[in-house]
Amino acid sequence: MKKSFKNRVFEVVSKIPKGRTLNYKEVARLAGNEFAYRVVGNILNRNKDPKIPCHRVIRSDGKIGGFNRGVGEKAKLLQKEKIVLF
DNA sequence: CGTATGACGTGCA
DNA sequence: GTGCACGCCATAC
To answer: Which of A 2-21 have CB under 7 A of nucleic chain C?
Structure first.
């Protein structure tokens, strides 16, 4: 099974510890290509798997960014996790 | 197979 | 400090 970048991103994001947020660039770097940060958001957007805490992935600006189900939901999850936007 | 997209990031006005 | 535009990559259709 060849792990595509998409699969890599899923694994990395699913490995994000609770209470920790990573920006798309970091996820992309851990996935193998720090220059593919756009793909990270792209993949998560087209693949809303409930097993993936994609809400822990935020922009490097410290902003929530966006969410396929609504930014409000993502903000809610972040607050629920007591995640502090670094 | 080829084209267009996208939950970004950075720079500049 | 805020807003706009460009550029980068992989995925989806």
So the answer is: 4-6
Closest CA to A56 of A82, A86, A20, A10: A20
Query: Is 0.85 topped by the overall pTM?
Result: yes
Q: Which of A7, A6, A4, A9 is nearest to A57 (CA)?
A: A9
A9-49 pLDDT, tens digit per residue, is 999 999 999 889 999 999 999 999 999 999 999 999 998 88
In which element (H, E) is residue A23 found? strand A22-23
Does the C-beta of A40 come within 7 A of strand C? no
Amino acid at A25: K
Number of CB atoms found within 10 A of residue A51's CB: 8
